[in-house]
Design brief:
CATH topology: Metal Binding Protein, Guanine Nucleotide Exchange Factor, Chain A
Shape: globular
Distance between the termini: 16 Å
Number of strands: 10
Radius of gyration: 14 Å
CATH architecture: Beta Complex
């Protein structure tokens, strides 16, 4: 496992995550992920540590209100959130990680536009 550092664009929010150097990410095509350019790396909460910016984080929820979409209130970047598929985990946006600790990224498309029919495909990811 590698310690990856990441955060928002303005630097107010920063975090560390324990994950492989070879990252397997999911690219969801739901309206939120597609518009935000989000690449999912789902990890357990114990693998994630918020370092700074708790006071800079706002939350957006919709539909079932299970997912907690966190974003920096200063720059608007969503660098991590609590996913509906793994409410006891964290989804980190691979695009918000420092690339110096990433050896490779393999991206798997996920049909989030049809979430109800495809959510089972995410069951093998960390929780």
């Amino acid at each position: 496992m590698t310690t990856h550092r990441g955060g928002c664009h303005c630097g107010q929010v920063s975090f560390e995550v324990q994950a492989p150097a070879d990252i397997a990410a999911d690219q969801c095509n739901c309206s939120v992920c597609r518009m935000a350019g989000y690449l999912h790396l789902i990890v357990s909460r114990s693998a994630f540590q918020l370092l700074s910016g708790e006071d800079a984080i706002e939350t957006y929820t919709y539909n079932t209100n299970v997912a907690q979409h966190y974003f920096c209130r200063h720059c608007g970047i969503k660098s991590f959130y609590v996913p509906r598929s793994h409410p006891s985990g964290i989804s980190v946006n691979v695009n918000c990680l420092d690339p110096s600790t990433i050896r490779s990224v393999t991206i798997t498309p996920f049909d989030g536009q049809n979430w109800e029919q495809n959510a089972f495909k995410l069951s093998s990811l960390s929780d």
